[in-house]
Amino acid sequence: MRTLLRLALLGTAFALATVALGWIAVPAVGVLWGLVSSAPHRPALTASAAALLAWAVLLTWTAFAGRLSALLERMGGILQVPGIILLIATLGLAGVLAALGALGGAEIRRLRAPL
Amino acid sequence: MRFMRLLVSALALVIFVAGLSTRLGPLPPLGHLLDPVHGVWAVARSAKPVAMTRAAIPGLDAEVRVLVDRRGVPHIFATTEADAYRAQGYIVARDRLFQLELQTRATAGRLTEWVDSVALSADRAMRALDLAGYADRHFAELDTRGQEAQALRAFADGVNAWIDRMRARDLPFEYRLLDVRPERWRPANTFYLLQRMNWTLAYGQHGLKRQRVAVHVGGLAADALLSSQSPIQEPIQPNGQDEPRFEVAPIPPPIVSNRVASITDFPSAAPPLDGGLGSNNWAVAPERTLRGHAILAGDPHLELTLPSIWYEIHLVVPGIMDVYGATIPGAPGIIIGFNRDVAWSFTNTEADVMDFYREIVDDSSQPRSTQLDGEWVPVRERVEEYHDPRGQLIAADTFLTSHRGPLRLIDGDWLSLRWTAFEPSHTMGAMVEAARAKSAPEWLEAMERFDVPPQNTLVADRAGTIAIRSTGRFPLRPGNQGGRIVDGSASRNDWMGSWPVERMPFAVNPAQGYLASANQQPIDPAVDSTYLGADWRQPWRALRINQLLRRGMAWTPDAIAELQTDAGSARADHFVPVFLAAVDRLKQNNAVDPELRNAGRRLAEWDRRYGLDSERAILFELAMDELTVRTWDELENEAGRRIYTPSSAALTALLQDSVSLWWDDQRTAVRETRDSILAQSLRGALQSATERYGDPEEGGWRWSRVRTMRIYHLLRIPALSALDVPNEGGTATLSPMSAGGTHGASWRMVVELAPEVRGWTVYPGGQSGNPASAFYDDRIPQWSAGALEPVSFPSAPNDLAPDSVVARLVITPTRQ
C-alpha cells in the first residue's frame, strides 16, 4: 500500500513538473527522488514507473481533450512506424529520464552517507 | 569507486539530456518534440474546436462575435470594417499560421532559414526578382489613412493578437517539426502574397522565350509558334459568332541553327502547365435559367496543397459589408465570393505584362550604369545574404537593378526586366471596396483600380446583370509590338502607359445570354488587334464551356455545378479524329501494321470523356505526349532538353500542313510526314500504356488508377498529404488535372442571384491547417465526387441554427 501511495505521489510530482516546466523537469524530479528516497532499493525503478505513469495520464488526458489518434496516424506516417510505437517511445523516454535522474540522485546520497 | 559511479550516472544523464535537446538530422530535438504537454502531442488538443472561447485584440473598436459552422467556416459579426479584418486576421492565423509565414518567407527568399540549403535555389530566384523589396516599397507608398492601408494594418493586428496569446499547445505542427517559432506579421506581408500571385500568374517571360525559339528555329517560326493571335477564336468578349472560329496560319519551317540557346531563365519560372494551371468562370443570364435568376460559377485552377490556398469565411458589418467566399490566407476580405447582391469570380488573363530590355552597359563584366538616350543612368547594387537555421551565412549574391528593374546577364546580353508587378498596386484596395458593391456596375467601377495580376473579372447581380472585363494594368507598347527583347538604350521603346478601362475586353448582358472565360484570348483580334499577349495556350476549356452553355436554356444551380466537373474534352474532340484519320489514310495505302490497327481501334472505342472508369483516356494522353516529343524535336538543345514546348493550339495549326519540315524527326534517317508521326505516336502510346499499365482488357488502364490528384502538404510530407485522389477530368477538361496531378480546381463555387442569394462551394482540403483536425482535409471526398455543399449565409448570429454551430468566439477590446 505504501509503495502504491509513494508511486502515486511521485507520479503526481512528475506530472505537475512536466506541466509546469516541460520534459526537462523529469530528470530533475528524478534526481530529487534519488536524493530523498527512503527506499533503500531501486529508487530508479520507482522513479521510472512513476514518470511513465505520469506521462501516460497526461497523454490520456490529451486523448480525451483532443484528437490524439488522428495525430498518431499522421506522426506514424511521417516516421513510417505504427503510431503506437511513438506512444511507447514517449512513455519510455519519461521512464529513462526519471531513472537516470534517480540514479544520479541516489549516487549523490551515497556519496554523502558515512562509509 | 563511489565517485566513479556518480560520475558515470551523471555523465549518462547529461549525454541523454543533451541528445534529446539536439537536432538529429531532419528531426527536431526529441525531448521537446515528445513532451506530452508542450510537445507535438499538444497539437492533438488544439485540433478540437472549443465550444466557447474568449479572446482580446488590442485596438478593437467593439466586441466581435465569431461563429464557426459545421463546415468549419467562421462567420464574423463586427460593428466596423476594421474590426472585421482584425477578427479575420486572428481567425486565419489560428487556423493557418504556418501557411501565412511560409508563403511570406517563400516570396522573401528566406526559406533557407527554416530548411537550410535545400531551399537555396528557390530563395535565389525570389531574391533575384526582389519581390519582397518591391512589396515593402509598395506598402510604404500607400496612403496611410486610406482604406487599403487600414485594412492591411487591421488584419496584421489580428494575426499578431493570435501570435501573442497563443498557448504552447497552439503552436502549429510544422513549427514543431522544423523547430522554429513564428515571426510577427507585418502589414506589408499581404503585398508579399500579392507578389507571389504575380509570379505564379503573370511571369510569362514571352520576350525571352521568343528570343530563344528564334535562335533555335528562326524568327518567323518563333513568331508563329508564340503568336499573339490564337488559332482558335472563342473570345471572352463575345464576337457575335455562334461557334468558334479556327483561323489557322501556317507555321514556317524551322531553320535549325548551330547556336545552342541557353535555358537560363530570368530567373526560373514555374514551367507552363497546359493541364492544371488556369481557371474557369461563367455566368448565365436570367433568361437562360429555370428560375429566372442569374447564376455565376467559378473555379480557379492552381496548385493543390494541404492546407489549401483558399480559406472560406463570412464577414458581416451591418449596413456596410456582408460578404462570403474564399480568401487567400494573408489577405483581408474576400477574393472570390458573393454578398447579398453581387457574386464574382476570376480567371487569369494570361496577358503579357513584362518586357525585357537589352541594355548598353558601361562595363560588361561589372556594370555600374546603363545608357538611356545617350546619358548614363546608375545601376543599383544589392547584396543578398542567405542564412541557415542556425543563422550561419550559407551564400551571398550581388544583384543589379536598372532604372527599369532587375538587370541580369542572359545568353551574353545584359537584360533588364520591366514588369507591372514592380509598380505600386491597388489590387487589395479594389478588392476591399468591391466587396461592398450593391450591383454589378458598382462592382466593376470598384474593380477599375485592380491592376495586378490581370484577371478576367466576372460579375453577376440580383437585378440579372452579368458582365465580364479583362481587368489589369496592360502595357501599351510602341508600335504595338510585344513579346520581344527591346532595345533599352532609347526611352522611346518604353511603355507608353497602359490600356484605359474603356478599352479593356468587356461585355455586359450579351445577346447570347451567358459569359464565360477560361484563359483564352480575351478579345478577337478581328475586333481589336492591340497586343495583349502571346502564346495563348488554352483554348480548349473555353470551347467546351461555350459548347455546353449554348445548348441549355433552363439552367439550374445543380446543372451548372455539374458542368464544373464535366468530363468531356474539346481537345480530345479535336485530336482523336486527327489520329484516326491518319490511321485511315495509312490503311488506304496499306501502310498499317497490326499494332497500329490495334491502337487505332482502341482509340476509336473511346467516348472522349475522362470518366473515372474510362479505359482509353490514358491512351490518348500518352499519344499526345508522344506527338509532342516527336514533333518538336527541333526545339531540343544539345543536352536533349526542349527549350520551349509549343501548345496543343499551335499543333492544331501545324496539322494543316501534312509535309511540313516540322514533322521530320531529325534523329532518324528518313523524312517523316504528319501521318507517319501521328501513327508513330499512337503506336508508341499503345506500347507505353501496355508496358506501364498492362493489358488494356485487364482494368489496369482505368483513369482513376493511372491518373490521380496528388495534393501535397506545403512541406511535401507524404503522410500529411492526400495522394491518389480521383478526379473526373484530365488535361484541358473543365476539372483539369496537370500531368503530375498537382494542379487542378482549387475552389469551386456556384451562386444563384435570387432575391435570397444562395451559394454552394467546395475545395480540395479543409479549413484547418492542423493535420490532426477533422477540418484538415474533410472536403476532399466531396471535391473528388464533384459535389458542392450549400453554404450558411446568416445575416445575424441568431440566424445560424444553434445545432449548426461548432464553436463560438467572443473577441473583446483590450486596453493598449
Structure summarized in a few sentences:
The complex is a heterodimer of chains A (115) and B (816). Helices cover 84% and strands 0% of the residues of chain A.
Description:
The complex is a heterodimer of chains A (115) and B (816). By secondary structure, chain A is mostly helical. Helices cover 84% and strands 0% of the residues of chain A. Chain A has 5 helices and no strands. Chain A has helices at 2-21, 25-36, 43-65, 68-79, 83-112. The longest helix of chain A is centred in the C-terminal third of the chain and has 30 residues, at 83-112. Chain B has a domain at 570-608 and 615-701. In chain B, the strands form 6 sheets. Chain B has an 11-stranded mixed beta sheet, covered by helices on one side. Chain B is globular and about 90 Å long. At the A-B interface, helix 3, helix 4 and helix 5 of A face helix 1, helix 2 and helix 3 of B.
Which structural class best describes the helix and strand composition of chain B?
A: alpha+beta
The helix content of chain A, as a percent range, equals: over 70%
Oligomer: heterodimer
Average pLDDT level of chain A = 92
Strand count of chain A: 0
Strand content of chain A: under 5%
Share of residues in helices of chain B: 25-40%
For the record, the count of structural domains of chain A works out to 1
Main attributes of the structure:
heterodimer, A: 115 residues, mainly alpha, 84% helix, B: 816 residues, alpha+beta, eleven-stranded mixed beta sheet, 23 helices
What is the fold's blueprint, element by element?
The complex is a heterodimer of chains A (115) and B (816).
Chain A: H1 2-21, H2 25-36, H3 43-65, H4 68-79, H5 83-112
Helix pairs in contact in A: 1-2, 1-3, 2-3, 2-5, 3-5, 4-5
Chain B: H1 2-20, H2 30-34, H3 42-46, E1 52-58, E2 64-69, E3 74-77, H4 81-108, H5 112-115, H6 120-129, H7 131-140, H8 147-165, H9 173-178, H10 189-201, H11 206-217, H12 219-225, E4 232-233, E5 245-246, E6 278-284, E7 295-303, E8 305-306, E9 311-317, E10 321-327, E11 336-338, E12 342-348, E13 354-358, E14 369-372, E15 375-378, E16 380-387, E17 393-401, E18 406-410, E19 413-419, H13 427-434, H14 440-446, E20 455-461, E21 466-471, E22 485-487, E23 506-508, E24 514-517, H15 540-551, H16 557-563, H17 570-588, H18 594-604, H19 617-631, H20 648-654, H21 674-693, H22 703-706, E25 709-713, E26 722-725, E27 743-745, E28 748-752, E29 758-762, H23 780-784, E30 789-790, E31 805-814
Parallel strand pairs in B: 1-31, 3-9, 8-25, 13-22
Antiparallel strand pairs in B: 2-3, 2-31, 4-5, 6-7, 6-24, 7-27, 7-28, 9-10, 10-11, 11-12, 12-20, 13-19, 14-15, 16-17, 17-18, 18-19, 20-21, 21-23, 25-26, 28-29, 29-30
